[in-house]
Amino acid sequence: MLSSQGPVLAPQGAFSYARTTQTVQTQDGYGNVSTAQVSDYGSASTHSYSNTYLYQNSTNGGTYKSLYIYDRLLTSTLTSVSPNVTLVSNVYDAAPTAAITTGTPQEQDWANYGTGALYRGNVTQSNSPGKTINTTYDVTGMVISQNDNNLHPVNVSTSSLTNTLPDSLTPNGTTSLADAGGVQSGGSGAHVGRGTGTDIEQWDIGHGGVHFVR
């Protein structure tokens, strides 16, 4: 169990009236946070919110543990309200990965991670209140399509030179809306955009998938 004291809430020079908040966490055997309780200011026994977390290794443990995949979040549940609220629920590896059709990726473990290797820890569906995101991947783990469960897809075409950075993004399968070029990469992913000034349409591609912003 881990416990940490948060910032002190008190006017300057009034430390006798100081109020603190506290966070208490428990972890599973792999270092993942299993529960988290945050106390309100002034009372360590009054929890402003409590969360429980369940990981994929506990529900399909033999398969994922054998592949050393321990940290894939399955559900996050707010337990300090009644009824409890599921903040996120993820589904992993529900569909096979697609073959590469442009170029040949280097440094790929084809013997163990070809298209027949289903269990990779890829989020294929993520559900949160009011939102569902479905995602498909190619054999290298690159996002190749995403939809919102309401017939609004985005398809991603990757570069034959890298097989990781996108050449184009096609919203709703509409070729006239496809974007090409203008790829900028960063620490959290890449984006493709078009337009200038304040009128810029952009699709961000990162660890969370593909998202449209304007």
Written account of the structure:
This protein has 214 residues and is mostly beta strands. The chain has a domain at 1-92. Helix content is 5%, strand content 50%. The chain contains 2 helices and 16 strands.
Task: Provide the helix percentage.
Answer: under 10%
Strand order of the largest sheet: 1-2-3-4-5-6-7-8-9-10-11-12
Strand content: over 45%
Straight-line N-to-C gap? 43 Å
Order of helices and strands: EEEEHHEEEEEEEEEEEE
Report the count of strand segments: 16
Low-confidence spans: pLDDT under 50, at least 5 residues?
181-214
Helix- and strand-based class?
A: mainly beta
Radius of gyration, taken over Cα atoms and rounded to an integer in Å: 22 Å
**Count of alpha and pi helical runs:** 2
What's the pLDDT, averaged over the residues? Answer: 76
Major sheet, described briefly?
12 strands, antiparallel
User: Looking at the structure, what is the overall shape?
Assistant: globular
In short:
The protein is built from 2 helices and 16 strands. By secondary structure, the protein is mainly beta.
Structure keywords:
globular, twelve-stranded antiparallel beta sheet, 5% helix, four-stranded antiparallel beta sheet, disordered C terminus, 2 helices, 214 residues, mainly beta
Write the layout of secondary structure elements.
Blueprint: E1 2-9, E2 19-27, E3 33-40, E4 43-55, H1 56-59, H2 61-66, E5 73-78, E6 85-92, E7 123-128, E8 131-137, E9 143-147, E10 153-158, E11 166-171, E12 179-180, E13 184-186, E14 189-196, E15 199-206, E16 209-213
Antiparallel strand pairs: 1-2, 2-3, 3-4, 4-5, 5-6, 6-7, 7-8, 8-9, 9-10, 10-11, 11-12, 13-14, 14-15, 15-16
